[in-house]
Amino acid sequence: MIPILYIVIPCYNEEEVLPVTSGMFLEELETLIEKGKISGESRILFVDDGSKDKTWSIIGGLSEKDSHFVGISLSRNRGHQNAVLAGLMDSMDKCDITVSVDCDGQDDITAIEKMVDEYINGSQVVYGVRSRRDNDTFFKRFTAESFYKLLGVMGAEVVYNHADYRLISARVLKELAEFGEVNLYLRGLIPLVGFKSSTVSYERRERIAGKSHYSLSKMAALALDGITSLSVKPLRLITSLGIIISIISFIGTIWAVAAHFSGATVAGWASLTCIVCFLGGIQLISLGVIGEYIGKIYMEVKHRPRYIIAERTDEKDSH
Fold first, then answer.
1. What is the pLDDT of residues 114-150, one digit of tens each?
2. Domain extent for 166
3. What are the residue ranges of helices labelled H in 35-78?
4. Which residues of the chain are under the pLDDT cut of 50?
5. Which of 8, 54, 200, 282 has CA atoms 20 to 30 A from the CA of 259?
6. Pairing relation of β-strands 5-11 and 97-100?
7. Which residues pair with 200 in a beta bridge?
């Protein structure tokens, strides 16, 4: 049976790059259809993540020109991870496999064929893995690689150098739908679902047009979400640090009492100030980490929807 493929593409203020990359995606889709790798019912699904420019009107125009293009628009900007999830969940009952990929054209879309081949060979999830990071600045390369290593140390199961370029079967998506957390980090969540998986290497290019919407602060927030959503090890590290400091403090207390009775004490404020500042800093950091987890619990218990679909290019699909 030839699988139906939906290519899920999140978009946020992509009016500059979308007219260029949409043709690339369509060409790749048609090539795979001609080769008999995927069904002619396959589609390219754009997810407009509350864009403030002409992104949604461009998506509407594309869908009118070619039936292979479809689109949904979220009621407001919900962030990249929620936009990807919205596209995946909307496609789940319409296809056999999905491939999520960014709109900017940096990910080599010819790797989609390799992913489909891996699926045909039995893989339910196929991760697109960057073969190298030559196009990244030293700072971005260092921070990205350090982040993946940090996640591993923290006990989170992630695929090294993998972002959100991946193939997922409809079977896996149905199981993913059972995961109801609001604080999404799909790179770590999908490996938790399980099933047979494999990887496909590809080279990442420069952005074709427009500017990246992923600022340093957004990358840091995503990294924090990844760690706190997948692991409780930071809390255990705080506990361990507290035990170590308590032991050191107990030893210091014994030393201070012994020094007092031996008459070897010397009055001074510098050492006392350093100790107070050190302990105060540790306490504030600890409270911050605990507060981050409490904040996530607060968001989870509300059970708010992770996204709301406001419009579709084909309103018939909404019924």
1. 999 999 999 999 998 887 655 666 666 666 666 667 6
2. 5-211+304-318
3. 55-65
4. 316-319
5. 282
6. parallel
7. 128
Q: Is residue 224 part of a domain?
A: no
| pLDDT at site 162 | 77
- Nearest by Cα to 202 from 269, 292, 118, 300: 118
The predicted pLDDT at position 125 comes to 93
Co-location of 250 and 314 in the same domain: no
In tens, the pLDDT along 215-259 reads 556 666 666 666 667 666 777 777 777 777 777 766 766 766 676
The distance between the two most distant Cα atoms of the chain, rounded to a whole number of Å, is 91
pLDDT of residue 70: 93
Q: What token pair was written down for 50?
A: 């509350």
Q: How far apart are CA 231 and CA 156, in angstroms?
A: 6
CA-based R_g, the chain, Å? 25
Q: Are residues 135 and 164 in the same domain?
A: yes
* 288 C-beta neighbours (distance < 10 Å), count: 9
- Type of residue at 208: I
- The whole-number pLDDT of residue 115 equals 92
- Give the pLDDT confidence score for residue 318 in this predicted structure: 42
70 and 55 in a single domain? The answer is yes
Check residue 319 and give its pLDDT: 38
166: domain CATH number is 3.90.550.10
**Which residues are registered as beta bridge partners of 127?**
166, 199
Burial annotation 123-155 (CB, 10 A radius, 16+ → b, else e): bbbbbbbbeebeeeeeeeeebbeebbeebeebe
Same domain, 56 and 186: yes
Same structural domain for residues 239 and 286? yes
Whether 317 and 91 have beta carbons less than 8 Å apart is answered as: no
Strand locations in 92-208 (E): 97-100, 125-130, 162-169, 197-202
Residue 173 pLDDT: 94
* 194 and 174 part of one domain: yes
